Amino acid sequence: MRVFSGIRPTGDVHIGNYLGAIKQWIELQKEHECLFCIVDWHAITTPFEPQKIQKYIQELAITYLAAGVDAEKNILFVQSHVKEHTELAWLLGAVTPIGELFRMTQYKEKSEKLKEQANAGLLNYPILMAADILLYQTDIVPVGEDQVQHVEMARNIAERFNHKFGETFKIPKAIIPQRGARIKSLSEPEKKMSKTGDPKGCLSLFDEPKVIQKKVMAAVTDAGKEIKYDLEHKLGISNLITIYSLFSKKKIEEIEKEFEGKGYAEFKKATAELLIDSLKNFRETKKKFSEKKIKTLLDKGAKKAEKLALPTMAKASKKMGLI
């Protein structure tokens, strides 16, 4: 089985990215052939700072490695280093109804937020994502809840192409983690944790201990003091319990029992200590990799990815009569 997944290099990688996507990868790489991509072309569909892109790519690659991605066993690469992604996206665009693109939830939400800054790249984002996936004859796509619709679009595009031109692409399947697929902001627990949202609500994998302590202790909670998981009435504390559960590998029921009779302050302190210890490896690994070493790994990965991409690109082009 072949796995494909990627993250946009748009800022510091946070614990939501790790728990919702990267953590799954570590398990999947044990049994499957995996391609883990840094999707920089996707990053330029929303406002960005050109001078920071390479920094974010570098840090994202380090994040993958620090999390446990095996660069020798898997293929780790940058999307823009394999031109076939955009070539295939153009072909797929020719079989994608524009109405489907306008109906995509992410486009509607982001275009509303960006107003006049919304661009054609944002509208065509799902086509490029479909190309990312279909280019490698992918079987499995591990994603967070917010990306499931995009995988469904990729499936629809593949089925439509296969029906019109003949069997060409595998039909991929999305998988999401049972818990942790949508970690919430520490400052606005009704919203998803975001690299581009309130910095107080986003916990980076590379945050220093003092920063982690400050953010967790200031996390928005709810009325009352009981450490109880309740998504209807206690969003803030439920989010912290989820984070604690995933990093400690303890069940929510165990955590509720462990902190029975204790208040929010004590639980926040314990959560901060757990995170400081759990994220130590990320901070230390970041210091070990030079820019040159990361570039070598990514160049090597791009060459491997291109070898897999070329046969699919040739097949799709031939099916459409583009010899």
Question: In a few lines, what is going on in this structure?
Answer:
This protein has 323 residues and is mainly α.
List keywords for this structure.
323 residues, mainly alpha, Rossmann fold, Tyrosyl-Transfer RNA Synthetase, three-stranded parallel β-sheet, two-stranded parallel sheet, 15 helices
Explained architecture:
It is a single chain. Helices cover 54% and strands 7% of the residues. It folds into two domains: 2-181 and 290-319, 3-Layer(aba) Sandwich (Rossmann fold), CATH 3.40.50; 199-282, Tyrosyl-Transfer RNA Synthetase (Orthogonal Bundle), CATH 1.10.240.10. 39% of the residues are buried. It has 15 helices and five strands. A three-stranded parallel beta sheet has the order 1-2-3. The chain has a two-stranded parallel sheet with strand order 4-5. It has helices at residues 15-28, 40-43, 50-67, 84-93, 98-102, 105-114, 120-123, 125-134, 148-165, 209-217, 235-248, 252-258, 264-278, 280-288, 291-319, and strands at residues 2-7, 33-38, 75-78, 140-142, 173-175. Helix 4 (84-93) packs across helix 8 and helix 8 (125-134) packs across helix 9. The protein is mainly alpha-helical.
